[in-house]
Structures
1.
Amino acid sequence: MSSNESNLADRLGHYVVLTDAERAALGALESEERQVRRGATLLEEGKASRELFIVRKGWLQSSVLLGNGGRQIMRISLPGDVLGLSALAFDEAPETVKALTDATVCPFDREQVTGLINSHPRLTALLLALTLAERTVLADRLASVGRTPARARIAWLLCDIFARLRIANPDHDAVHVPLTQEEIGDATGLTAVHVNRMMRGLADDGIIERRGSVVRLLAEDRLFDEANFTNRLDIATSWLPRAG
Amino acid sequence: MSSNESNLADRLGHYVVLTDAERAALGALESEERQVRRGATLLEEGKASRELFIVRKGWLQSSVLLGNGGRQIMRISLPGDVLGLSALAFDEAPETVKALTDATVCPFDREQVTGLINSHPRLTALLLALTLAERTVLADRLASVGRTPARARIAWLLCDIFARLRIANPDHDAVHVPLTQEEIGDATGLTAVHVNRMMRGLADDGIIERRGSVVRLLAEDRLFDEANFTNRLDIATSWLPRAG
DNA sequence: CGCACCTTTGAATGAGATCAAAGATGGTGG
DNA sequence: CCACCATCTTTGATCTCATTCAAAGGTGCG
């Protein structure tokens, strides 16, 4: 069940050198493990939930349903991500979270966050900064969907995914992307049919290569360029409280 | 210069009963006032900035510029809002902030946030919750722009503005909206021309009334309905740390 | 190996963009 | 106080990018 590793601690460790106490506090959030089957729903829009999660393994998606049957995918979550943070603002989940692959998550409840805030100011500040970075990525995504043509939106989504995967795996440039074209459409505000044509275009132009659901990046610079992508993975740390 | 009122304290006071110490800490953030002319830029995308602001008076907008000349407006800021929080995650502003009307803001720097986090866990938790609520609103906006037709997007924007104005002014239903149709377009991912046609449609259908830039809400329920709007202004407080 | 789901391609349609030009509005300086 | 000019709004005509509809291949899993 519990491993003495912590995905979240590893991630935060990129930004600051964690104290043992901090590492222990983060590890406590990952003391419980839950297996999730591909397709299973972890959180449902509108349903009560005070649970949060840290992703240990697998891919998940957060989405909302529109009145007209449409669906918007807000974010793809990867290992090391925190999920369901909005439980800290709302008693009812604003988004549905579904597993795209078999996944392992570590659930904890919001009272554990209360404890963290009370005793670890620096971790709290990091959590806030991470949340703000995520908000900024969401803003970038909005700009992409609101103000760029179909091809650039697809490019942006690929950049987002690749940039994040690179952290854990700097070498890999071929990735199994467990998203159907319909889902890519729901993330970019397009129809599956149009997604298909645009992906074909990117492949024809030698920017990506596709084999089934495996995507290989052939011309990262051109993709970033078409997407107008900004990497938001580095965060400012100079203002953080002293460790303690 | 300094007034002994705090917009932010008033706002947070809606959610919890603040202690004197908490009220004082928040007041300190608003000890300095700065006047901003309509059209003036407070923060510029890409430029260094460690300043944050609390809005005291006036309307402002946050936007990003796209490579192709397009612009996406992310958020309209009103009195009581915190602006420039992303300075806590990035040394360079990800968004440009511009005053839509003459405005008064209270600047403070991010080291003051450090102090707040060190000594006021409950305020820190509230700040986190507020940020998460804002992120959720951004997600709602993304769903609106990505997955609904032009008319519904305009409706959503109006709902967002009216819902927030209602807090300070529950009675008013006619509001001077200092946005050009071009700006409404930049917020909704539409052209000014199409915004014009959609607004006319909403007026023709008796949902709103327009006199110059003053908009009156005639059928709030129908507007909310068309927009698929969810009010995100209430936040959960049961998990917050005890005051102290 | 058969069925459900996904991808691919073609053709027709449509929502919103683009282009163009005529009113309205309001702030500024004379 | 008024006239002027810049900016914003409104409306029409045309165009285009993406949607919709339809149907033929693939793929993988039970």
2.
Amino acid sequence: MSHISVGVEYGLHCLLHLSGPPTGVTVASVRDLADLQGVSIDYVAKLFTKLRKAGLTVASEGKNGGFRLAKPASEISVLDVVHAIDGVKPLFECREVRVRCAVFDGNAPRWAAQGVCSIHEVMLEAEQRMHEALARQTLADLSRRVDAKAPRSYGPSVVRWMENRSGSA
Amino acid sequence: MSHISVGVEYGLHCLLHLSGPPTGVTVASVRDLADLQGVSIDYVAKLFTKLRKAGLTVASEGKNGGFRLAKPASEISVLDVVHAIDGVKPLFECREVRVRCAVFDGNAPRWAAQGVCSIHEVMLEAEQRMHEALARQTLADLSRRVDAKAPRSYGPSVVRWMENRSGSA
DNA sequence: GGAAATCTACTCGGATACCGCGTGTCCGAGTTATGGTGG
DNA sequence: CCACCATAACTCGGACACGCGGTATCCGAGTAGATTTCC
């Protein structure tokens, strides 16, 4: 179990497919998105509920409904997706052991509880660096990287796959 | 449950007390270290077993035994402690969903499985930034910060507390 | 032919089951200094 | 006075219990377009 969950991974892959041409479409149903990656439909649906609440996607209900990005892909960072799905769980949870030092015998002096624990400071600094790196990358950046790897035929084949599904259903 | 466990927090606090004057001593038993912070003895013992295996501390067995740092505090980074106790668990565990894309229909082409997943790359970059921040801080740095906060009387009182314990026992 | 009813496909959200892992505890074994005992 | 033995204190390492949260599934409700039915 890692700090950044698989939900984030699924979510990012789905959002990449929603980032428009050349590699993806602009609107798709949860069913198609889930089946496209061999993941549980219900699970992906829960992810998109979170993404919607975070204001990253908008949903259109009813038949032929689906999700699309609420903003241009260049304005959605990886950090946004992480926070939307995993919440803001901290890298490190300080338990304030400094105030429980036996020397204080129960009642810690003011200076011990004041400010942020020194160890906590270091962890917060590291967390900050991590967040900066994640905030720097947007869906558009990721999309470009994928496009650079994949052959030119990949994008259209994905689009065709989705159209065939809705056609056969 | 955060990515960096409470074990690391306990471990760091213990190691700080082992970082020598002015705030700490140079050798101490697990019992004293644990009681000093109101933490389970057995649990701290397990932590120190890991720290020993990682080569950060050395133990002297038998009566009046205990642990001391294997290296100067200035050569032990926070990252070393994190890795020693939590292991090297990754920030993000890529499940390679890219190769499971339904378009490939079971057998993914070479280009899809080649190299590192684009999403994974971003996560690795963030993890790297985090590690850099943790590697930059040593026990000596932390010790200095604590000393700057605590009054001059704190260090000696900790030492006295330990001596009283071994004296009364 | 147009309006109403039905159907279908989709989103929404809660409830729940499963399972791995972090946290914490317990115990037996090995090791070394200390204190006591007997020659 | 010295050698020997028992005891205490400590580390070492495995085993295990507990609970939380991530992962995954199921189901009922609400909504809107498509289709059919009926006047």
